[in-house]
Specification:
Layout lengths: L22 E7 L3 E7 L4 E2 L6 E3 L1 E9 L16 E7 L10 E4 L14 E9 L4 E2 L7 E3 L5 E2 L8 E4 L2 E8 L13 E6 L4 E4 L12 H6 L2 H5 L2 H6 L3 E3 L18 E3 L1 E2 L37 E2 L2 E2 L2 E7 L3 E5 L5 E5 L3 E4 L2 E5 L3 E2 L8 E3 L3
Length: about 350
């Protein structure tokens, strides 16, 4: 096989045989290791015959402990960069991570306190690399700490200035798809916006204003590093409009990145008027119908906030001040308090900060 890198002195090669670039490269730091996942490109096919024109052959992961790699081989001359791994099985590490570090199944050495910069380059069967001009690198710093999965419900975590509350470790029940297993449901500690639940006036959560906000604008309002950590999942939900209570579960749930919790998730269970759209989350489990533990603040004051659960023909259930179920018309304003799922393996500083929150470090 030809040498796997091209010197900067030679410049970027003209590539008559391009292949697609690696996507979704992500790095999660642990104690003495970094987990890397990514998606390899597909082959390029003839648009008419379907014959393979250019085949993906391998992906190389380059690492540099001084600066983000900008080309294959960046750092070889001064000793700051090296080839970490070569992968020839497509998407082998799309879910099962490549581990950088001296741990079981790992490669190389990842020292705590050192920031490592990674870039992935896909090679075609003509030995040409793609990804030279793609700003797709990631960085991570291994450090001693504790895992998010070890925190109890009610604990606070922080990413930069964003503070979240732990609601649930793992899958709440079999109403939830497998993406919840071994991961953590968190919710914003505070209400971050007042918004119409659905400006159209219908109580169709999947097509609501607030669901569009949670999976669009909201994601651009939080730090990009936190956004990259969130695991998309399918949540139980009541489809359509009107007073129906039957919901879709498991793999038939609604695919979201962030979401409003449901009435059943805040423990309004067993009521004849509440959709069957979830199970009680640990933080709310056992609460009576009215309990101030459900309260949240908006700009320093208590404020009602919306669940995803439909109420009657054209309403939704909000958490009223004091923690009771408040039936509200769908086009009314309500507090937005996004929930989402983070990896249970997320690394935190071992002691809480002045806010009482454990800071995310990888």
């Amino acid at each position: 096989m030809a040498q796997a890198f091209i010197s900067r002195r030679g410049g970027k090669p003209a590539d008559p045989h391009p292949v697609g670039t690696v996507t979704n490269l992500a790095a999660i730091a642990g104690n003495g290791y970094v987990e890397l996942t990514w998606a390899d490109p597909e082959d390029i096919l003839h648009p008419v015959t379907g014959a393979v024109l250019v085949a993906w052959a391998r992906t190389e992961i380059w690492v540099n402990n001084d600066h983000p790699p900008t080309y294959p081989g960046d750092g070889l001359e001064d000793g700051t960069g090296w080839l970490l791994a070569t992968n020839t099985m497509r998407d082998e590490h799309s879910t099962a991570p490549l581990i950088h570090g001296e741990v079981e199944g790992g490669v190389g050495v990842a020292e705590n306190g050192t920031t490592y910069h990674y870039h992935a380059y896909a090679y075609s069967n003509h030995n040409q690399a793609s990804g030279w001009d793609v700003d797709g690198g990631v960085s991570a710093t291994p450090a001693e700490g504790i895992l998010l999965s070890t925190l109890p419900s009610g604990a606070l975590i922080k990413y930069e200035s964003t503070i979240m509350l732990v609601l649930q470790q793992g899958r709440p029940s079999d109403r939830y798809e497998a993406g919840f297993i071994d991961n953590t449901i968190v919710i914003m500690r505070d209400i971050h916006k007042s918004i119409a639940w659905n400006a159209s006036g219908t109580n169709d959560y999947a097509n609501s204003t607030i669901n569009a906000y949670y999976n669009g604008q909201f994601l651009n309002e939080i730090p990009s590093g936190l956004r990259a950590m969130i695991i998309p999942v399918k949540i139980p939900y009541r489809p359509g409009t009107g007073p129906a209570l039957a919901s879709n579960y498991g793999d038939n749930g609604l695919l979201v990145t962030s979401f409003a919790v449901s009435g059943e998730e805040v423990n309004w269970t067993g009521a004849s008027y509440m959709p069957y759209d979830g199970s009680p989350l640990s933080y709310f489990a056992g609460l009576p119908a009215t309990d101030a533990k459900r309260n949240a603040y908006y700009n320093g004051s208590l404020y009602p906030w919306g669940t995803r659960s439909a109420s009657g023909a054209a309403g939704f259930w909000a958490v009223g001040i004091g923690g009771y179920a408040a039936g509200t018309t769908a086009n009314s304003g309500t507090g937005a308090r996004a929930a989402f799922v983070l990896p249970g393996q997320t690394l935190l500083r071992p002691e809480p900060d002045a806010d009482g929150a454990y800071e995310i470090i990888g």
